[in-house]
Amino acid sequence: MRAPTLIQSACLSVAVAGLMCLPAGAAWGSETSTAPMNQAVIEALTKAHAAVVGVQVSATEGARSAETLGERRAGSGVVIAGDGLILTIGYLMLEADAIQIVTQDNRVLPARPVAYDLATGFGLIKPLLPLRNVAPVALGSHQDVQTGEPLIAASGGQQGELAITQLVSKRPFSGYWEYHIETALFTSPPIGNHSGAPLFNRRGELLGIGSLFVIDALGQNRPLPGNMFVPVDLLKPILAEMQSTGSSVQSRRPWLGLTSSQQEGRVQVVRVSKGSPAEAAGVQGGDVILAVDGVRVATLEEMYKRIWAHAQPDDEMKLTVQQGEDTRDLTVKGVDRMSTMAKPAGI
How confident is the model at residue 246 (pLDDT cuts 50, 70, 90)? Predict the structure, then answer.
């Protein structure tokens, strides 16, 4: 591993000093000698930070995802294997025409997509040229982290930064884009360049990958800006499968093309994707989803799990919707979402 620059060393020293000052429970306060601990933390974070890269993506012409994600995207990733395999957040690489990574020493290398997993949101990419002297990070676990514990978030590329943050909540998360995971990590204060940013503990172990900026990091109807990270615990059981097949079996599920929100025990459609199964069935923005296959749903999680209970992506299901003053039963035939997109070469 190459030596850190003076700026990087200074940033890491400041970060470690900050970690020592933040309250994080008895485990942190039990150290008897802070100087050796500080040095060990600096060395661990220096090694971890060296594995962080910038990720730059240009979407293919006519990409459906460009409407919401843009044609040019920038974020981060982190090296997790000795062959240069990089973990990032998957939406960065959707319908990519070209992918580049930017190393800590400002080398710009072409990369190829390896996998995108809808169920977790993770993406894997690999540089086409070998990385020099970059050791992969170790994968940690959110089960070893308690709320209130200070952590380090890092972003790569020319605008890369190190930032101290704290874990403020661990809880299920349902996204408006037909996405749900049973455990997500919420931190505050937020970092700006969160897309694909790795989250480290003081041992330099990878805990999660940045996905979103949120305004409710606490999740208790108390506004607190922060970030949502997808925990790497979700990656461990599917990593080999992702590398061999480009996805996971959990991702082969129906997609309807709904953007939805939940409030006061109601699931409301905000937007319907053009050309989607939901649009073909007659679902409209503003509709309230009352039931799936006759089973009432009051949350996004309930709706998604009823939809995903179907064994095949192209299964048919019945949505009971309220459109204005009318209640209608609509038959929707799902689709494999990846089949609707321009597929990057290699996946």
Answer: very high
**DSSP secondary structure letter of residue 233:** G
List pLDDT tens digits, range 128-155: 999 988 999 999 999 999 999 999 999 9
Contacts of 198 by beta carbon, 8 Å cutoff, 6+ apart: 48, 52, 76, 77, 78, 87, 137, 153, 154, 206, 208, 209, 210
Burial of 113 (0-12, 13-18, 19+ CB in 10 A): buried
Q: Dig out the tokens for 9 from the structure.
A: 């060393």
Residues 6 or more apart from 3 whose CB is under 8 A from it? none
With beta carbons less than 8 A apart as the criterion, state whether 180 and 269 touch.
no
The pLDDT, as a whole number, for residue 37 is 58
Tokens representing residue 317 in the block: 């299901």
Element (H, E) at 317: strand 316-323
1-247: CATH, from 2.60.40.10, 3.30.9.10, 2.40.10.120, 2.30.130.30: 2.40.10.120
pLDDT > 60? residue 55: yes
Question: Which of 15-19, 101-105, 246-250, 261-265 is predicted with the least confidence, judged by mean pLDDT?
Answer: 15-19
The phi-psi region of residue 293 (left if phi > 0; otherwise alpha if psi is between -120 and 50; otherwise beta) is left
Q: Is the dihedral of CA 241, 247, 252, 258 positive or negative?
A: positive
pLDDT for the residue 17: 52
- 150 closest CA partner among 138, 164, 170: 164
Q: Check pLDDT > 90 for residue 346.
A: no
Can you tell me the distance from the alpha carbon of 156 to that of 232, in angstroms, rounded to the nearest whole number? 18
The CATH class, in words, for 252-338 is: mainly beta
The CA distance from 150 to 216, in Å, is 18
